[in-house]
Amino acid sequence: MFKYFGSQLIFLIALGLLLEFKIVPLFAIQGAQPDLFFILLAFYSFFIYPSRTLHFAVLLGIIRDFFAGTFFGLETLAYGISGLMLWVFVM
After folding, report:
1. Is this model's pTM higher than 0.90 or not?
2. 40: which residues sit within 8 A by CB, 6+ positions away?
3. What phi and psi values does residue 35 have, to the nearest 5 degrees?
4. Residue 76 to residue 27: CA distance in whole angstroms
5. In whole angstroms, how far apart are CA 10 and each of 5, 38, 52, 53?
6. Up-side HSE of residue 32: CA atoms within 13 Å toward CB?
């Protein structure tokens, strides 16, 4: 999966986890927070490896499910659908 930019993507995912759950809530405006993982997913689909967008989206969804306190599978489903839509858009 990480054929290109493997170690950099792992670093970006770890940095995204740190920022998403520790720093970004401090800057929320009336409860609205930016979704850094979706920004990373869009960057991946447009610039790095467009044909693997769906796989990367599901991986990001699983990672968010493990660390977020939501229903398990909800983030994975949302990221999978958005990854599919991005893949169709890029191709």
Report:
1. no
2. 12, 13, 16, 60
3. -100, 100
4. 25
5. 9, 15, 15, 15
6. 2
Of 44-48, 56-60, 83-87, give the lowest mean pLDDT range: 44-48
CA separation for the pair 82, 26 (Å, rounded): 26
**Residue pLDDT, tens place only, 47-56:** 877 888 888 8
Residues 77, 57 contacting (CB under 8 angstroms)? no
Is 68 within 8 Å of 75 (Cβ atoms)? yes
Q: Are 69 and 32 in contact (CB under 8 A)?
A: no
Convert the pLDDT of each residue in 10-37 to its tens digit.
888 888 888 888 888 888 889 888 888 8
Q: Specify the residue for token string 């991005």.
A: 86
DSSP E strand boundaries for the chain = none
